[in-house]
Amino acid sequence: MDDKRTTSQEGDFLTTAQGARLRDSDHSLKAGERGPTLLQDHHLREKITHFDHERIPERVVHARGAGAHGVFEGYGTATPLTHAAFLGKGVQTPVFTRFSTVLGSRGSADTVRDTRGFATKFYTAEGTFDLVGNNMPVFFIQDGIKFPDIIHAGKPHPDREIPQAQSAHDTFWDFVSLQTEAQHHTIWNMSDRGIPRSYRMMEGFGVHTFRLTNAEGETSLVKFHWKPLLGVHSLTWEEAQLLGGLDPDFHRRDLADAIEAGAFPQWELGVQVFEDNPEQMFAGIDLLDPTKLVPEELAEVQPIGRLTLDANPSNYFAETEQVAFHPGHLPPGIDVTDDPLLAARLFSYLDTQLTRLAGPNFSQLPINQPHAPVNDMFRDGFHQHRVHEGVAPYQENSLDGGCPFFAGAEDRAFEEAAVTIAESTKVRANPATFEDHFSQARLFWLSMSALERQHIIRAYSFELGKCLDPSVKERQLQCLANIDPELCSEVATALGLDAPAPSEELADVEPSPALSQLGESWPTTGRVVGIVVDPDGDTDAVQTARDAVTDAGLTPKLIAPHGGEVAGVAVDGTFATARSVEFDALLLLGCPRPAADALPRRDEKAGADGAPTLDPRISLMVQESWRHAKAIAAWGEAGADAVHAAGLGEPDGPGVFVGSEPADLVEALVAALAEHRVWARLGAAG
Ligand code: HDE
Asked: Basic and acidic residues bias: where (predicted)?
């Protein structure tokens, strides 16, 4: 039997699904060259039928995603908290991580404003652990029973099925302004977190509180955090919009390219730890309320291991599409809590996968197979791959020797933490602590820098500006007034509406500086530098500059007027295919002139004031890089000419470096990239 996990296209004969070798797959069997096609052509029917069934239902949420394989290594620091073996010091566990957007269809653009999924499957020796998180620490709703409502509101309008993969429409804002518990998650979406620069540069959060049990049987409550080693960085809104058209696969490509280039993305897994008290509260924050975070200043994130993504999937469908996560996939030592959002998730994932993956045996698909031995008593069903032996698939039995056996604690069985449930009455109601809907949205707002606040104001102004129903806008303005009057008044001005007064007292909260993305410097591994070259100018520095970029751990992309090679170096993109938004920084090695047959432009100053002319596509590239506060390095006179010709004046602005040594220029770029952008160029208003 062929039980190979992967099948190569190379080296074998083309066969039918039954293994018969084929001598032709281009012509149907016909009665004569011009005659009717014969029904007996089994190969034709098999080929077409298989094709007809190639598509499976996409995920109802998180349909658009990208995945990677990797390894997780435990630090051992979690051992006092949990006996989960994979968190032990130096233990290495294979993983598969899938990142995703939430709202869009499988073919939608990567860079839309949305929450991102961050789901990791740890193939631990004690059974699979799935940490199915997001890039934001809170969720829209407190009770899973509302999930169909928030998703129906966020999805395209049912009449015209627009807009795709967007929250900028009436139904979304109708819902979040009526169900005000959604306001905290919504302000995260309106912040720069909603438009990540890369999957490699996102934090991840388990959102819910989980319960850990250690070897002594003691329990604690924890919240899981993923911290990217490259820092948390975002696109600008204009970059995100341009990329949606220019490269809808931007995040997918970025992840795969980085891994292929050996710039393996890494995250540290950490936990915030809380005493497992009967109230399940910490510093006045209800740990069972998934719309609340615990500021890191109050509970430090303690690192417990490191994730490295080091291999791209070989086949998107087999791996990234068919992977099935479930928050109930837990190893011994990790357990769930009574968060009512989590309870619904524990039901939903298996249920949806039964349809999506056509039956109950999808855990046998290679990507979903546990690496721990499986010895279950599940039988039959669609796509059963196992050939079970024996006659007694039931417990207890005497006919199969009583096998398999139950494990005891000494055999490391999974055991639910024995939590006492207080005497209670059946109700459809929330605890009073769930009624606070605005204090943490305010905390988030107050924790932002001036620039980040500006972005939030613009995002609300854009999204609400896209709404048609005045009552929706007015109701959301009321919510903003309850978060912060300044935020409300700025957005109201942009909408041309009056700013309402707060309808409830503003919460008195301490900002959490850890929530801001600015103010630190970060490693720059795998950042992308566009190198613009002019094949008609001096090409001496092309090879040296490319090597200097690579040696600095950055990814060079050579941009030239045509494909092929320049000075023996392969061209990665042409002036027609490349755009500034694909790069983190620019290195100008020349000042390419407009093509002789280029159409004249009205704004062309063509040497009027003695300024050099520059190909308009590169002019645009330099101007956009400037506007998006990206570092620009210019080599020699030609590079300086390009900066000048692009209309940036003399090349002495912040983040513009001119020099004659490529290595020095690259060093300057690295220093600027460590802060992600040249913030000084944006001032406080960017
Ligand atoms: Fe999910 N979610 N979700 N979700 N979710 C799914 O499961 C659901 C929630 C998250 O890359 C679905 O197999 C309910 C929170 C990720 O394959 C579905 C509720 C968080 C992914 C589902 C939530 C998430 C999903 C769709 C409220 C962050 C993609 C396909 C009770 C902590 C995983 C599937 C992947 C996918 C249901 C809320 C994260 C329908 C009912 C909170 C990252 O089962």
From this structure: 21-33
pLDDT at 562 exceeding the cut of 50 = yes
Residue 539's pLDDT band (boundaries 50, 70, 90)? very high
Ligand 1 mean position to 346 CA, how many Å? 10
**Phi and psi at residue 78, in whole multiples of 5°?**
-90, -5
> In 218-260, at which residue ranges do the beta strands (DSSP E only) sit?
219-228
Distance CA 126, CA 158 (A): 45
Which residues are registered as beta bridge partners of 659? 635
Q: Is 291 in the pocket of ligand 1 (CB under 6 A)?
A: no
207 near 138, Cβ under 8 Å?
yes
- Write down the catalytic residue from 69, 134, 135, 437: 134
Angle (CA) 426 177 171, round 5°:
100
Alpha-carbon gap, residue 25 to 44, rounded angstroms: 8
Boundary (domain end) residue, out of 346, 368, 390:
368
Say if 549 falls within a structural domain.
yes
Q: How many domains does the chain have?
A: 3
Instruction: Indicate if ligand 1 lies below 6 Å from the C-beta of 119.
Output: yes
pLDDT tens for each residue of 250-291 = 999 999 999 999 999 999 999 999 999 999 999 999 999 999
Residue 505 domain flag: yes
Taking only the tens place, the pLDDT of each residue in 576-587 is 999 999 999 999
Together in a domain, 233 and 315: yes
| Cα–ligand 1 centroid distance for 621 (angstroms) | 39
Q: Are residues 586 and 510 in the same domain?
A: no
56, 58, 59, best to mutate for ligand 1 pocket (most atoms within 8 Å of CB): 59
Whole-prediction pTM: 0.96
Tell me, what's the pLDDT at 685?
42
Could you read off the pLDDT of 516-530 as tens digits, one per residue?
999 889 999 999 999
CATH code where residue 612 lies: 3.40.50.880
225 and 348 belong to one structural domain: yes
How remote is the CA of residue 329 from the centroid of ligand 1, in Å?
13
250 alpha carbon – ligand 1 mean position (Å): 23
Give the span between the Cα atoms of 89 and 26, in whole angstroms.
57
Q: Which of 368, 388, 405 is the last residue of a domain?
A: 368
Say yes or no: CB of residue 345 within 6 Å of ligand 1.
yes
Active site residue 312: no
Question: For the domain that residue 347 is a member of, what is the CATH number?
Answer: 2.40.180.10
Residue 657 scores a pLDDT above 70: yes
Give the whole-angstrom CA distance, residue 17 versus residue 45. Answer: 12
CATH number reported for the structural domain that contains residue 463 in this entry: 1.20.1370.20
62 flagged as catalytic: yes
Residue range(s) defining the domain that contains residue 487: 436-515
